[in-house]
């Protein structure tokens, strides 16, 4: 079947793999929060705020309503990144390129942490070992699920 699936089909398969990977990432991150009692990261919301500021856009509302919008937009940025990276790997698969877990993990790490670093929201050079593990392990789950899902699509 993989020989007859075109680029759009592979992009959609990749997006589905990205959605599965994003779910795995979220599960691992939420388990970490539950087990260690750590709070959710505020970096997605701070990124949305900085992006809006940089683009000279305002996020409507005041108080809790505005904060809820920013929180929702922050969560959506993670979903868009995870599904989008999966879609890109699907297009790469259509061209014959097979990415494994480590390359997929590295790509999603850069696509999520890169903008936050450029915008001055975070600086990975200052992270502790625990910070790195807390960020790397969920992204590794993403990479493993995306890579294995794409491989399963090859076999279908």
Structure report:
27% of the residues are buried. Helix 2 crosses helix 3. The protein is built from five helices and no strands. By secondary structure, the chain is mainly α.
Q: Give the CA-based shape.
A: globular
Category by helix and strand content: mainly alpha
- Main β-sheet description: none
Order of helices and strands: HHHHH
Mean pLDDT reading: 95
Strand content: under 5%
> Are there runs of 5+ residues with pLDDT below 50, and where?
none
Give the CA-CA distance, first to last residue. Answer: 6 Å
Rg calculated over all Cα atoms: 17 Å
Number of helices: 5
**Assembly annotation:** single chain
Give the helix proportion (percent range).
over 70%
Strand runs, count: 0
In short:
By secondary structure, the chain is mainly alpha-helical.
Topology readout:
Elements: H1 7-36, H2 43-54, H3 63-94, H4 101-118, H5 129-155
Helix pairs in contact: 1-3, 1-5, 2-3, 3-4, 4-5
List keywords for this structure.
156 residues, mainly alpha, globular
